[in-house]
Write a structure and sequence with these properties.
This protein has 275 residues and is an alpha+beta fold. The protein contains 1 helix and 15 strands.
Length: 275
C-alpha cells in the first residue's frame, strides 16, 4: 500500500511539474503574436511620423523639387498640398488609389496634418487619416504631436498622444492602440532622412483583436530606438502586462538592424524573429 501511495505521489509531482513547465512555455508561446502585432503597430506609427515630417519639410523648403535624394518615403505619385491661409494650417498627403513610396511600401488614401504653425520651433500637429492604407493595413484615428524643444544640435523633443485603430489584412482583425509617449529625434545629416534616429518612452495600451488588453511600459533609461535607415526598432526594453495578469519583457537588441528580439517570462527566455 505504501509503495502504491509513494508511486502515486511521485506521479503527481511529475504531472504537476509537466503542467507547470507547459504553462510557462504556453506563456512565452502566447507572447509571440502579441509582441509581433504590437511591434508592427509601433513601427507603422513611427514611419507615419517620419513620413509626415518629410512632407512638411518638402513644402517648407522653397525651390526644392517635389522629391529629392534626401527623401526616404515619398515618391512622385504622392501629391502634397498646403493651405497656409486656414487656421490651423493644413498639409494633405494624397496617395490616391495606390502609391508605392521610396521605401517600397504601398499606400493609398490621405494623411491630413493640421498645425498651429509649420515653421515655429514649438508647435502642435495633429494627424488624421482618410481611407488610409499602408501595405494592406488600414490606419484610423488621431495622433497629436506637440513639439516642445527644437534644439540647434539638430535634435527635437515631442510629446505624442495616439488614439489609433489598425485593421490588419486577411484574418488579422482590428486592434486599438492608445499611447502617451515622449519622442526624441536625432537628425544626423541635414536633409537626409535615412540617417535619423528616434527614441521613444512612455506607455501604450494595445487591445488585440481577441479582446486581450496589453499594457506596454517603456522606461526613459532604456527607450525604444528606431532607425529610419532599416525601418526597425533596433534596441530598447519593453515590459508587457496583459489583462489576464501575465507579464514578460521584450528586448529589441543592441542597435543592430535585424528583426530579432528576446522575450523573457520568469526564468524562460526565447529569441524570436519578427516579421
Amino acid at each position: 500500500m505504501m509503495k502504491i501511495l509513494s508511486s502515486l505521489f511521485v506521479t503527481g509531482l511529475t504531472i504537476a511539474a509537466l503542467v507547470s513547465c507547459q504553462k510557462e512555455d504556453t506563456t512565452l508561446e502566447d507572447a509571440l503574436p502579441v509582441v509581433e502585432q504590437e511591434t508592427i503597430a509601433e513601427e507603422t506609427l513611427l514611419e507615419l511620423d517620419a513620413l509626415a515630417d518629410e512632407a512638411v519639410n518638402l513644402k517648407l523648403n522653397e525651390g526644392k523639387s517635389a522629391v529629392t535624394e534626401g527623401d526616404f518615403y515619398l515618391s512622385s505619385c504622392s501629391v502634397i498640398t498646403i493651405d497656409n491661409t486656414s487656421d490651423p494650417k493644413v498639409i494633405t498627403i494624397d496617395f490616391g488609389t495606390g502609391c508605392t513610396g521610396k521605401d517600397g511600401k504601398l499606400r493609398s488614401g490621405k494623411i491630413i496634418i493640421t498645425a498651429t504653425s509649420f515653421v515655429d520651433a514649438t508647435s502642435e500637429r495633429i494627424k488624421t487619416f482618410e481611407d488610409f492604407y499602408v501595405d494592406g493595413k488600414k490606419v484610423e484615428g488621431v495622433v497629436n504631436k506637440t513639439i516642445t524643444i527644437d534644439r540647434e544640435d539638430r535634435s527635437r523633443v515631442a510629446e505624442i498622444l495616439e488614439d489609433i485603430t489598425i485593421t490588419f489584412p486577411g484574418e488579422g482583425g482590428t486592434a486599438s492602440r492608445v499611447a502617451s509617449l515622449t519622442r526624441e529625434y536625432r537628425f544626423e545629416l541635414p536633409g537626409v532622412l535615412r540617417d535619423n534616429i528616434v527614441t521613444s518612452y512612455g506607455t501604450v495600451e494595445f487591445t488585440r483583436v481577441n479582446g486581450l488588453k496589453v499594457t506596454k511600459t517603456i522606461s526613459e533609461s532604456d527607450p525604444l530606438v528606431f532607425k529610419t535607415s532599416c525601418h526597425r526598432i533596433v534596441s530598447g526594453v519593453v515590459t508587457v502586462t496583459t489583462s489576464d495578469n501575465r507579464t514578460w519583457t521584450v528586448d529589441y537588441g543592441d542597435g543592430t538592424c535585424d528583426n530579432l528580439a528576446t522575450i523573457t517570462s520568469g526564468d524562460k527566455t526565447r529569441i524570436i524573429r519578427l516579421r
